[in-house]
Amino acid sequence: MQSLQDQNNLIPRPRGRLPKVCAAVLSAMTIGGILFMSLESLFGWVAIVILILTLGSLLHSLCLLAEEIVNHSNTRHRGRGLLSHVMPACGLCGKTLLAAGLAGLLLYLVGHPLPHKSQSWKLIFLASSFYPLLKSLGVLGPSEVEVSELCEGRKMNVAHGLAWSFYIGYLRLVLPRLKDSIAEFCATHRARRWGRGSRLIILIPLNANISHKLNEEDDRIHFYDNLPNNEIDRAGVQGRVYKHSVYRVLDELGQAHECVLEYATPLLTLYSMSQESSAGFGEPERRQQVLLFFRTLQDILEHSLDCRNRYKLILLNDEHEADPHFLSKAILRNLEQQEKEEYCLTPTPQQEMNPFSKSSSPASNINGNRHCPDPMSREPTLMFSLEKPKSLKEPEENCEHYQGK
Predict the structure, then answer these.
(1) Tell me, what's the pLDDT at 388?
(2) pLDDT value at position 93?
(3) Which CATH architecture has domain 158-345?
């Protein structure tokens, strides 16, 4: 059975700053070695290296600028300003120009490290001119990791768009109404114990292969009924219907547990894209996008006040497909965890009824009840002072003044 720790190990974390740290350490080690060997020409060599890198980047940006101006100024940039938009988009930004200017000034002040001044300039211009060629041919990157980091940092992946669409177009609309729908359902059905904070369980399988009938995946899961429909005016459709299905999940003892259960429907898009050769979206890319979808949706919902404590995301690892009851076990494990959380957060009746009762003290909660004694989990109560009311009038001085005679 997949544990919560295994689920956390599957989800990729955002990439950190380790490459920058390694690059800084490498540069420091190189400068330290040069300082140990020769201090006289250190600043000159540093200036030459910076000039080569910055001039090469600027020349490559000029090549990109020529393409954008000639072929894409109207279609991609729609006539926007050359200085304000097109040039920064091509990489001709102020930081690169500033770095090149400072490197040139440093080289002018400290002098050229090579015996002949012309040799330094030949090296600078020759290396800078080859940089755009190697960059255009893909020799100098970007690597697959850099592209992935760029797409994740700027929220440009397919998974980011699907997660936001799932939240904006569905979850943000239905989750705030879920509690009332469950209450109305329980009033008309003989449902068994249903937790006070029942949530919508959203299944996210790693292989993105979704079955439209859950009993075909696991014979311990049975459809019970639908919650009352929610009708919302949306995108010109009057009274668009949103519905949820209630399932009964049987444990090993045959006891039924009711819950609102469904798959994350955007995964159907990911799976269909992986089946189309024109999409260029294979199985490894699909798996990576599912993990990013899970992480992105989790981050969105955690910061949403409308959806807080109204959902539960379950990541299903397809490595356990051999177990015919893996799905029901994963659902029951999360239901059990949810009930434990609610049980700990539920205030005791004495705390709600009488704040002066002895049973409301932490000691009596520990000995007499099994509820969590954390005072932050109790309902707010009114506290009354037993002291007599005092006057708000300030005291007056009643002393006699001594008058010398």
Answers:
(1) 58
(2) 81
(3) 3-Layer(aba) Sandwich (3.40)
